[in-house]
Structures are given as C-alpha cells and as structure tokens.
Design a protein that fits this description.
Strand 5, helix 6 (about 125-135) and strand 6 form a beta-alpha-beta unit. The chain is of the alpha/beta class. The strands form 2 sheets. A 6-stranded parallel beta sheet has the order 2-1-3-4-5-6, sandwiched between helices. It has helices at about 5, 20-35, 50-60, 75-85, 105-115, 125-135, 160-165, 170-175, 200-215, 230-240, 260-265, 280-285, 310-320; strands at about 10-15, 40-45, 70, 90-95, 120-125, 145, 180-185, 220-225, 250, 265-270, 290-295, 305.
C-alpha cells in the first residue's frame, strides 16, 4: 500500500475550476475520489481565497498533525512555506505539472527547494520533469519520487448535462462542420522566445490545409482564459484575411471541454512545451483520436508529430482523418 492510501485526513493545496484546465480538473477529480473513499479533505484553494483565508490556511499547514497529509498541487508561496515549516511532522507530498521553473527566483525558489527536501514522495507526470528539477538544483537524486499520470477518467455519463450548457452558437458550428477538429488552452501565450505555447498559429494553418481536402472542415479552439491580447487579436485578423473566421470557433465557456473532444473527429495539442496533456487522455478515453507534439511523454494511444513541424502535423492529421489522397 502506498503511503497515500493510508492517510485519512488531507490538506490539499491547489485550485479547482474555474478556470478549467488540466491541473484544476485533476484537483477536482482527486479530491472527489478521496471523499468518495471516506477521507476528509480540506481544500486550500489559494487562487480564490481571501487574504484572511490565506493566513488561516498557512497556520493550518504549519500545525497539521503527524497523521495528516499535505498535498501540494501548485507553486504558491503559502503552500510551500506552510509545508516546509510544518511543526508536527505531517506527511508532505508534491505533484509537479510541468511548471516553468525558469521564472522562479528569490524566496519562492528557496521555499520550493526546502519543501521538496521534506517530501515523503514527489510525483512527476514524466521523466523530463524530474530531470528539470534536478538540473536546476531543486531536487536531490535521492529524493523518493513516483511517476504518476495526472489523468483521472471523466464520468462519461455527464456528457449531455455539460453539452446542454454550451452556447447555442457552438452547437450550431459543430453541426455545420465536418470533419471537426478541436484543441484547447488555458490562455493564448507567447513564450519569451516568441513561440506560440499552445500552437494556435499551427491550428490555423492546419485548418487551411485541411479545408483544401475537406472544404466543410471546421476548428473549435477552447480557451479557459480569453483575456484579450495583442497576439490573439493578430491571430484573429489572420483568420479573417485567410477567409477562415467563419470556420474557426473560439469557445470561451467555463465548463469542461472533454464532451467537445468526443463530438470532434480529432483532437489536436500542438504545444511547444508540456508536462503530459490531460486533455489528450480525456479525448482518447472518450473515443476520439488525438494528435500531439512530441515534447514529452504522452498518454498511451497518442499520435505524435515533431514539435513545431507544420508539415508533420498536417501529415498525421490527414492520415488519421483519411484525407491522404
């Protein structure tokens, strides 16, 4: 039995939806699973907490008893500090979800290093993540670790209820386009190197190429955070200039998106960096083929393409949709 299974009382540090993203969905499902198993879980959702709540959470972490578990599912300073300075020998666990460690510095970096040194187990989505922590000096080679899929299967029976909350415009778009391609992102982000993190640019080019072979093709791109940005506006202008704006739908709803994947003919994840890709696993579990960049270990059954290689992405999509000729 893993030590996780023997702990009946938990302090879980991490946000649940909204926003709807891989990490928040993981938190929601893991907490739900533990509660179904009869465990007590106090969730410390620091993203939505007030200043007073954050102070109380910090104190609870510092004084969490020895028979309790602390599960750190984000890089918040309060969670790291509270776990690090726990006075009663609670069992500490940390789960990495491919956080960008390059931007960590100062107090937060120091807190992460000390927290990891006290962990009973550090969970990683893949081998590359562990190497990243070790190479940056945050983790000792000797630290107990475990590779753990961040994917917890969705309840497929919830599909119709979730779809009923989708906007009517989206349902109409889905009905009017075939084949239907889909992708998702937390928000549209350009990296410091000027690379489209979630590959929106590649999705646009992919749609253009697909419509040359299948003129009724459409693309739905789901966004958890649709905050306007100069780059997003640039991509929207690009769609209009290519005559694709009526065939590319930005879905900015606040619900789960796996039913969208199930309604799609194929799901795409052209990320330039990633930790695993929970949305890929959701698509495959729902019966939809998924094509993703080869930047990390992917869920079993994923069709991979060479990262940032548009020709290879198009080729893999055409093959999966049987549009080769």
């Amino acid at each position: 039995m893993h030590k996780l299974d023997s702990i009946k009382r938990w302090f879980f540090v991490g946000a649940s939806p909204p926003p709807f993203g891989g990490v928040t969905i993981f938190a929601k499902r893991l907490i739900g699973l533990w509660r179904k198993q009869g465990k007590f879980v106090l969730q410390m959702d620091l993203l939505h907490a007030s200043k007073t709540q954050k102070i109380l959470y910090l104190l609870k972490l510092v004084f969490a008893p020895a028979n309790n578990g602390i599960y750190i599912n984000d890089l918040s300073g309060i969670g790291l500090v509270g776990a690090t300075f726990n006075l009663r020998n609670a069992s500490i666990f940390f789960h990495d979800h491919n956080y960008d460690l390059s931007k960590l510095n100062g107090f937060q970096a120091l807190a992460l290093k000390h927290c990891l040194s006290k962990c009973a187990t550090v969970f990683f989505d893949g081998l590359h993540s562990r190497h990243n922590y070790i190479s940056r000096g945050y983790l000792r080679e000797s630290t107990v670790y475990q590779f753990s899929s961040p994917f917890l299967p969705q309840d497929l029976s919830e599909k119709n209820d979730i779809i009923s909350k989708y906007p009517s415009e989206l349902n109409k778009f889905i009905t009017n386009h075939s084949p239907l391609l889909s992708a998702n992102a937390f928000r549209i982000i350009l990296t410091d190197a000027g690379i489209d993190l979630y590959g929106l640019d590649m999705c646009i080019s992919l749609l253009a190429a697909t419509r040359e072979r299948a003129p009724n093709a459409g693309f739905v791109f789901a966004l958890s955070d649709s905050t306007p940005s100069e780059y997003l506006r640039l991509m929207q202008k690009k769609l209009a200039s290519m005559g694709l704006d009526e065939h590319f739908f930005f879905f900015t709803g606040t619900g789960e998106v796996w039913p969208l994947f199930q309604l799609s003919d194929i799901m795409v994840r052209p990320t330039s960096t990633d930790g695993y890709g929970i949305s890929i696993a959701e698509a495959i579990y729902a019966g939809t083929p998924a094509v993703a960049s080869d930047v990390c270990d992917r869920p079993a059954g994923t069709i991979t393409f060479k990262s940032r290689d548009q020709d290879d992405l198009n080729k893999k999509i055409f093959n999966a949709l049987k549009l080769d000729s």
